[in-house]
């Protein structure tokens, strides 16, 4: 797989997973979906969706997928082969929460996915006119673009929302260009009374930096903040 990526990718692999839990080391992926999307044409080139066999699904009440459905007769191996073929034609993988999706790849039966990743929640800086939070939900992102939300927590549905959002972005190239910029880890210099400023700006408390509100930011994101920050690790990107 060729991972030489242009600064602005022209073909994207929009992907989403449904899983039986939150931990790739002990839980399993029950559903994989992907859409191959053309940036210049603003259109879907192809798509694939499949259930993957599991013995039980402790997240059934969230994603609505019975384990018995995953065990039904279906060409899931062929679907994985098609997924890899689509990945071969993509410049980057895109998900709405790459911090969650990415660690599952390379855990059988999911193959490794050696593509650059773009997160539409963390990496893309959406226009202010959309009135979105710094880390918007996929539901809010779709609604802000005038896209009806008819269901959530199924993989292909979420990929379709992303494809529809991208198809309506007049400056998608600019958004992707900024999303690909290097990021560094910063902690917010706010008082206890000002902590809401950091939280609203998408900073996380006590996870990236112990005892601090922190977030990885591009230069453009940092310059938009209404409060000071301090660089934590210049090697983070």
Structure description:
The chain is α+β, with helices and mostly antiparallel strands and 237 residues long. It folds into two domains: 11-179, Nucleotidyltransferase, domain 5, CATH 3.30.420; 183-231, no CATH class. It has helices at 60-63, 67-70, 76-88, 98-101, 138-144, 155-167, 172-179, 195-200, 219-223; strands at residues 11-19, 29-38, 43-51, 92-95, 117-119, 184-188, 204-205, 213-217, 229-233. A five-stranded mixed β-sheet has the order 3-2-1-4-5, with helices on both faces. Strands 7-8-6-9 form a four-stranded antiparallel β-sheet. It is globular. It starts with 10 loop residues before the first strand and ends with a strand. The mean pLDDT is 93. Pfam families: RNase_T. This is Possible DNA polymerase III, epsilon subunit. Residues 11-175 form the Exonuclease domain. One of its GO terms (molecular function) is nucleic acid binding.
- Compressed to H and E, one letter per element, the order equals EEEHHHEHEHHHEHEEHE
How many runs of DSSP E, i.e. beta strands? Answer: 9
Q: How can the largest sheet be summarized?
A: 5 strands, mixed
Q: Would you give the CATH topology of the largest domain?
A: Nucleotidyltransferase, domain 5
Rg is: 18 Å
CATH class of the largest domain: Alpha Beta
Secondary structural class: alpha+beta
Main β-sheet, spatial strand arrangement? 3-2-1-4-5
Short description:
With 237 residues, this protein is an alpha+beta fold. 27% of the residues lie in helices and 22% in strands. The protein has two domains: 11-179, Nucleotidyltransferase, domain 5 (2-Layer Sandwich); 183-231, no CATH class.
């Amino acid at each position: 797989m060729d991972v030489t990526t242009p600064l602005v990718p022209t073909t994207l692999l929009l992907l989403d997973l449904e899983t039986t839990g939150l931990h790739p080391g002990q839980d399993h992926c029950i559903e994989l979906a992907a859409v191959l999307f053309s940036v210049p044409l603003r259109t879907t080139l192809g798509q694939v969706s499949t259930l993957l066999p599991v013995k039980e699904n402790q997240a059934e009440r969230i994603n609505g997928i019975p384990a018995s459905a995953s065990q039904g007769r279906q060409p899931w191996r062929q679907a994985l082969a098609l997924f890899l073929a689509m990945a071969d034609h993509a410049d980057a993988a895109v998900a709405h929460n790459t911090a969650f999706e990415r660690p599952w790849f390379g855990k059988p039966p999911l193959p490794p996915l050696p593509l650059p990743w773009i997160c539409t929640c963390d990496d893309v800086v959406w226009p202010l006119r959309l009135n979105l939070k710094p880390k918007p939900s996929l539901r809010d992102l779709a609604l802000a673009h005038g896209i009806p939300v008819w269901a959530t927590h199924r993989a292909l549905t979420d990929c379709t929302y992303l494809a529809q959002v991208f198809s309506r972005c007049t400056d998608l190239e600019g958004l992707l260009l900024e999303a690909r910029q290097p990021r560094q880890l910063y902690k917010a210099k706010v008082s206890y009374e000002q902590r809401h400023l950091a939280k609203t700006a998408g900073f996380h408390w006590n996870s990236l930096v112990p005892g601090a509100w922190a977030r990885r930011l591009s230069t453009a994101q940092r310059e938009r903040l209404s409060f000071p920050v301090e660089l934590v690790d210049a090697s983070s990107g």
